[in-house]
Amino acid sequence: MKLVVNGEVREVSGVTTVAELLGFFKLQHKILVVELNRVIIERHQYESTPLQEGDQLEIVHFVGGG
């Protein structure tokens, strides 16, 4: 399936939910915000939020520093 992730077209296979996409990119344990088609998805909804061909996602993860 082709998705637009952070402005780049990405081909992903075996991914049907936001949670699976985060696992695909090895981001499942990061503190982050996911926006799907301009709607912010809450963390507890990642497992139940389906993805479709052509969806647009922005994934922002936080980095601590000083």
TrEMBL record:
CDD domains: Ubl_ThiS. It holds the Pfam family ThiS. It comes from the Bacteria. SUPFAM superfamilies: MoaD/ThiS. PANTHER family: SULFUR CARRIER PROTEIN THIS. This is Sulfur carrier protein ThiS.
